[in-house]
UniProtKB/TrEMBL annotation:
Keywords: Cell membrane, Hydrolase, Membrane, Transmembrane, Transmembrane helix. This is Undecaprenyl-diphosphatase. One of its GO terms (molecular function) is undecaprenyl-diphosphatase activity. Its main location: membrane. Its EC number is 3.6.1.27.
Amino acid sequence: MTIAAPPEPSVEGYQAIVGLTQEAPAWVRAAIAAGSLALIIGSIAVFIAVIWRARGKGMPAMALAVLAPVATTVAYVIAETVKVLVEEERPCRALGNVMTISACPPSGDWSFPSNHAVVAGAVAVAALVVWRRLAAVVVPLALLGAFTRIASGVHYPHDVLAGLLIGAVVTPVVMLAGTYLVTELIRRRRPQP
């Protein structure tokens, strides 16, 4: 199923953001280009931090921490499935002659939803489930990381919003649904006193 055209407000938002990006100083464009890699490295750092912190907090807390990357992966797989079903062309190809910071992904690498935004939303919510005090750090970073996908020219705003939503909804459901099972697995693997 192919979407004939993305929503007009999303196209206009994309064009406005990409236009502003082109007028930005070189260091801002470089930071936007590095945003995707920073998002992945930041996600790994968040997972390490929540697992490290959960070590002394009991088995259910450890189970939630261990489930954070698993839930993020599930959200990613769901988003990738949606991409294949929707087949929305990337704006950098669909709109033609758009100056972008990042290279336009090849044809067949669909736009809706943004997988980077899925990961950003999933990691932020997973961190909040395990360690609420991280909200002041992870939520702004997730939003910024997701925004860089528009600013770099490879996604429409609705791609990013859908990605954030998928990550934010799927992740806590998977984490909470799997807590009992993983807690029991941890309990069985721990040496008994």
